[in-house]
Specification:
GO biological process, one term: pyruvate decarboxylation to acetyl-CoA
CATH class: Alpha Beta
Oligomer: single chain
Structural class: alpha/beta
Shape: globular
Protein name: Pyruvate dehydrogenase E1 component alpha subunit
Number of strands: 9
GO molecular function: pyruvate dehydrogenase (acetyl-transferring) activity
Strand order of the largest sheet: 2-3-1-4-5-9-8
Number of domains: 1
InterPro entries: DH_E1 (IPR001017), PDH_E1_Alpha_Subunit (IPR050642), THDP-binding (IPR029061)
Pfam families: E1_dh
Radius of gyration: 20 Å
CATH topology: Rossmann fold
Length: about 325
């Protein structure tokens, strides 16, 4: 299957956007947290989990999704949100804790939610999988051909919610795809020390559903496999599992000392960077000019810069109004 050139360009632009967003956030997050690191201080308080290096997992499948398809993300959610089309300005404002954010600054980095494109952070570990299955069940009961995608880390495949949900999804033939991002570590624990199987796609056989493993952070193969799983789900043939071998360039969280990693690990991974590889493919095999790619890169970075400027210039919520929306919602439901 040949990937359409326009899709390849879209994937490239999204990957550049995600990388630049995460690298910018890594710098912004440090503001006000030195000389002694203080997680509660600075421009962006709270914990921060960034996904530089993991772009192919998000763009490969989101290239096949529509606004009405549901995506749930774990605690490392920015690449999924950007690829799904979440409002970048409001997302950044939310992370900054600003009134103009998706949740008016109440949710922050780990609780992003944009109903316009049916995106939400479902929680840590495997907590988002049941939410996605619920959306898949709703689509099936309504007779719609929408699908739901749950992104999780490889450690989530050892959690009860993963297995319980997949059992029901397979039994009910729900339009659910679970994408496992194997970045080799569950916090600081290597996969080989926590997981009995070499790759989690093998677990699909326990539920009688397809399972796929994508090696070497390959965005093209992720696109191709995703096309099959999404089409299968839309046809009413049930769930699938995709596990992609991906790379986390940064720590489990910002400020992570990363003493569990070999100092040469990340430099070695960067030599086979997926963005560089896709750029080379576009130039050599699709005769896309460097000038055109630079235009895509400039547009992506410009959008990110505008989002950060919007977030910085936005007002903080009035502390006296902090629970106003909550009370309004409760009153409306009583």
């Amino acid at each position: 299957m040949t990937v359409p050139l326009q899709k390849l360009k879209w994937m490239y632009e999204q990957m550049v956007k995600i990388r630049y967003y995460e690298e910018t956030m890594a710098r912004v997050y440090e503001e006000g947290k030195k000389p002694v690191f203080n997680i509660g201080a600075g421009t962006v308080p709270g914990e921060m989990h960034l996904a530089a290096g993991q772009e192919p997992a998000a763009v490969g499948i989101c290239a096949h999704l529509r606004d009405q398809d549901t995506v749930t993300a774990p605690h490392r959610p920015h690449h999924h949100a950007i690829a799904k089309g979440v409002d970048l300005k409001r997302m950044t404002a939310e992370i900054f804790g600003k009134k103009t954010g998706l949740g008016k600054g109440k949710g922050g980095h780990m609780h992003l939610f944009d109903p316009r494109v049916k995106f939400s952070c479902g929680g840590i570990i495997a907590a988002g999988i049941p939410h996605a299955a619920g959306a898949a069940l709703a689509a099936k009961m309504k007779g719609e051909d929408s699908v739901a995608v749950a992104f999780v880390g490889e450690g989530a495949a050892n959690a009860g919610a993963f297995h319980e949900t997949l059992n029901l999804a397979a039994l009910w033939k729900l339009p659910l795809i679970v994408v496992i991002e194997d970045n080799a570590y569950g916090i600081s624990v290597p996969k080989v020390e926590s997981t009995a199987v070499k790759t989690n796609d093998r677990r699909a056989s326990a539920y009688g559903i397809p399972g796929y493993y994508i090696k070497d952070n390959d965005p093209i193969e992720m696109y191709r496999v995703s096309e099959e799983t999404v089409s299968r789900a839309r046809r009413g043939e049930g769930p699938s599992i995709i596990e992609i071998e991906t790379y986390r360039y940064l720590g489990h969280f910002q400020g992570d000392p990363e003493i569990y990693r070999d100092p040469e690990e990340v430099p070695s991974l960067r030599k086979k960077d997926p963005i560089d590889r896709l750029r080379t493919l576009l130039i050599k095999e699709h005769t896309v000019s460097s000038e055109e790619l630079e235009q895509l890169e400039s547009r992506a970075r410009g959008e990110v810069d505008e989002a950060y400027e919007f977030a910085r210039s936005s007002p903080y919520p009035d502390p006296t109004e902090a629970l106003e929306d909550v009370f309004h919602e409760v009153k409306a439901r009583v």
